[in-house]
Design brief:
It contains 3 helices and 5 strands, in the order αβββααββ. By secondary structure, the chain is an alpha+beta fold. The protein has a domain of about 80 residues: HIT family, subunit A. The longest helix has 16 residues. The chain is globular, with a radius of gyration of 14 Å. About 30% of the residues are buried. The structure holds adenosine monophosphate and zinc ion. Zinc ion (ZN) binds next to helix 1. Zinc ion binds next to helix 1.
């Protein structure tokens, strides 16, 4: 039985209970546009199953972090930023500004993304 958190915003998006601008999805993953985009491409890539952080999803040893990285690449191709390049970010914990505790990779592209951020 897949884990779900009844109070989790992204579990509700996975279930179709809250609308989202879906870019692509498959059996394991849903990718949708961030409601407050920080770049021309800003897409969140999440597993359907609830894990609070990237570390927790990785520790489950189910290939979910691989699936997120693969779908992030698909999103970049769909948005036409794969060749120029993009950033895949996982904020983890309060000091990193994580607000939604359902693991999500931010795919950011379409503008200069040199590091450290300005
Ligand atoms: P983080 O700070 O890494 O937890 O990122 C959470 C992200 O979720 C932020 O970039 C928000 O703009 C985004 N977000 C919050 N609610 C929604 C929503 N309903 N649909 C799409 N993105 C959302
Ligand atoms: Zn969740």
């Amino acid at each position: 039985m897949a884990q779900r958190d009844a109070d989790c915003l992204f579990c509700k998006i996975v279930a179709g209970e809250i609308p989202a601008d879906i870019v692509t999805k498959d059996d394991e993953i849903v990718a949708f546009r961030d409601i407050n985009p920080q770049a021309p491409t800003h897409v969140l890539v999440i597993p359907r199953e609830h894990f609070p952080t990237a570390a927790a999803a990785g520790s489950a040893d189910r290939g979910l972090m691989d699936a997120i990285a693969r779908v992030a690449g698909e999103v970049a191709r769909i948005d036409g930023v794969a060749d120029d390049g993009y950033r895949l970010v996982f904020n983890t914990g309060p000091a990193a500004g994580q607000e939604v505790f359902h693991v999500h990779g931010h795919v950011l592209g379409g503008r200069s993304l040199t590091w450290p951020p300005g």
